[in-house]
Design goal:
single chain, 75% helix, 5 helices, mainly alpha, 2 domains
């Protein structure tokens, strides 16, 4: 079931992210709005678009979140492998995505204090920014 849902979520995310999907959604809204005079702008006419968009939005949240979670996990695994394979890198950073927000903030502050402004590590960043 997990494999099927993951594949389904990925495919739907890819499809709805395409310009054609936007054009289909736009066409639906335009057709709906053009039928307003036919249905005399009734409550039922308004309820159709409200219900339809609510259902689609509700379901898409879960599909897109699943696809984003898998993408984030894949990127994290790749970054962990780069840390592991790079000799001067700190292997202690592997898995820090599981720490609390406060713990991550402490690590970020430590790194900025240690390797931030005034260190030789900052010079390449400044050169890069000057090129912009």
């Amino acid at each position: 079931m997990d494999h099927f849902f993951s594949r389904f979520a990925q495919n739907v995310s890819m499809l709805v992210g395409r310009p054609e999907a936007f054009l289909v959604a736009l066409a639906i809204v335009l057709i709906w709005s053009l039928t307003g005079p036919i249905f005399q702008w009734s409550d039922t006419w308004q309820l159709i678009i409200n219900t339809g968009t609510t259902i689609v939005t509700f379901l898409m949240v879960f599909l897109i979140q699943n696809a984003q979670n898998r993408d984030a996990s894949a990127i994290q695994a790749k970054l962990d492998e780069l840390i592991r394979a790079t000799e001067p890198a700190h292997n202690e950073f592997i898995g820090i995505e599981h720490l609390t927000e406060q713990e991550l903030e402490g690590i970020r502050k430590f790194l900025e204090d240690t390797y931030g402004e005034g260190t030789p590590y900052q010079a390449p960043v400044k050169r890069l920014l000057k090129r912009r």
